[in-house]
UniProtKB/TrEMBL annotation:
Listed Pfam families: EcKL
Record PANTHER family: PROTEIN KINASE-LIKE DOMAIN-CONTAINING
Name of protein: CHK kinase-like domain-containing protein
Origin organism lineage: Eukaryota, Metazoa, Ecdysozoa, Arthropoda, Hexapoda
Tree of life domain: Eukaryota
Residue ranges of every copy of the CHK kinase-like domain listed in the record: 123-320
Length: 407
């Protein structure tokens, strides 16, 4: 089904077409995603074709709903992602080339153009799916090979960033100073307790409901709740943790995997997409959010193996720049960060696992929010896989209780 483009989008696509040698072309557009797959954007597939030559693109555009735009700081999110693609990731590429890094971090899509026009914010990128990249089935935990691939990708990303920070602090400060804080950090929604605490309570209630018949786990959750709230009030702003650029949105629909042959158990490559809430924080933010949201119980039980895998990859990336990992981010400090952010990762799972386990028709439609609704109400939806949600949340709470809270 063809998608109608606005004048800003048409002009941008025409510019990209001509820059890539398509002076006379046929343009085809189609819906690029299902409801529940992408919440901060509308995805449209774009094909520019002239005879046998064609250019396959993805148009990612902002919602027009004013209630949602305000609640999600949508314009700030798009401006940030555009900046990441056109500036920071470009600088990372140059920096790795200068240092002759062999195992480079290039796990992101190529951007062709963007618009910062108010209410027409958008990015146009290569369509990775036409190159064989696929989304993971969000309703299933990942296997070891996929967990490992993602953690290695994050480790290379964090390692590249921290190497630049150590060896070229002027450049690092220059490219990160305007995005050091989260897009929501100074928004009224977070700074106003009357607005934020009901949202926080709504997310926590999802956790409590999942273990309501287990008094020990309920008491445990009550014990850590103030610590989780303090992470938002103080911990995420603590200079101890503001040490690296992070991806910030570490769920599976922001990851694309490629495979060799017909075996979809072992990915040959991975791409990170959706950089809209990237900011400066601890690598443990990305690690814990991703690891808890996607690991089955057997991987959770073997968590130390994956900590070592991440840190070994991170260390090798730093050594590619002739940096000493023990000087920049020793393993003991990494473990301390992990111990803190596991609580934050658990909290994130109370909401993101709902999104991952619901079917498309059950997913909330933030683009249809009204003045009478808020994010808490929108996220309070019914879905048929609720029993699976409860089991996974229970396993996560047990894991965090047994593995981290005594440290």
């Amino acid at each position: 089904m063809s998608v109608q483009l606005n004048e800003v989008q048409k002009g941008l696509i025409d510019k990209i077409a001509k820059e890539n040698g398509f002076n006379d072309y046929e343009l085809t557009t189609n819906k690029g995603t299902e409801k529940g797959d992408n919440f901060l954007g509308i995805l449209t597939t774009v094909t520019i074709k002239n005879g046998k030559d064609k250019l396959e693109l993805i148009l990612k555009s902002a919602h027009q709903n004013e209630v949602f735009r305000k609640a999600a700081a949508l314009r700030a999110a798009y401006l940030r992602e555009i900046y990441l693609y056109e500036n920071i990731l470009t600088e990372f590429k140059k920096y790795q080339e200068i240092h002759n890094v062999v195992d480079v971090f290039d796990n992101y899509a190529k951007i062709y153009g963007s618009s910062t026009v108010e209410e027409s914010e958008c990015l146009i990128m290569e369509n990775l799916k036409t190159q064989g990249y696929q989304l993971w089935n969000k309703q299933q935990p990942m296997n070891s090979e996929h967990i490992s691939a993602v953690l290695k990708g994050y480790a290379k990303f964090h390692g590249t960033c921290m190497a630049m920070k150590h060896k070229n602090p002027e450049l690092y400060v220059k490219i990160t100073k305007d995005i050091s804080s989260s897009i929501w950090e100074n928004e009224e929604f977070v700074t106003n307790k009357d607005l934020f605490e009901p949202f926080f309570r709504g997310v926590m209630d999802s956790g409590y409901k999942s273990i309501k018949d287990d008094p020990d786990l309920t008491e445990f959750l009550k014990t850590i709740e103030p610590k989780i709230l303090d992470m938002f009030s103080n911990g995420l702003k603590d200079p101890e943790y503001k040490i690296s650029l992070i991806h910030g949105d570490s769920w599976c629909n922001n990851l694309l995997f490629k495979y060799e042959g017909s075996d979809n158990n072992i990915p040959s490559d991975i791409k990170f997409i959706d950089w809209q809430i990237s900011h400066v924080n601890s690598p443990a933010y990305d690690y814990c959010y991703f690891f808890l949201a996607h690991s089955p119980k057997e991987i959770l039980d073997d968590y130390k193996t994956y900590l070592k895998l991440y840190y070994d990859t991170f260390s090798n990336q730093l050594r590619s720049f002739n940096c000493d990992p023990e000087e920049i981010f020793p393993y003991s400090r990494f473990e301390n960060h992990i111990n803190q952010f596991m609580l934050f990762g658990l909290y994130m799972c109370f909401s993101i696992l709902k999104i991952m386990l619901c079917d498309s028709e059950e997913a909330p439609d933030f683009g249809e929010m009204t003045e009478d609704e808020d994010m808490v109400e929108t996220m309070n939806f019914e879905f048929k896989n609720y029993d699976i949600f409860k089991e996974r949340i229970r396993n996560l709470i047990v894991f965090v209780k047994d593995s981290f809270t005594a440290k």
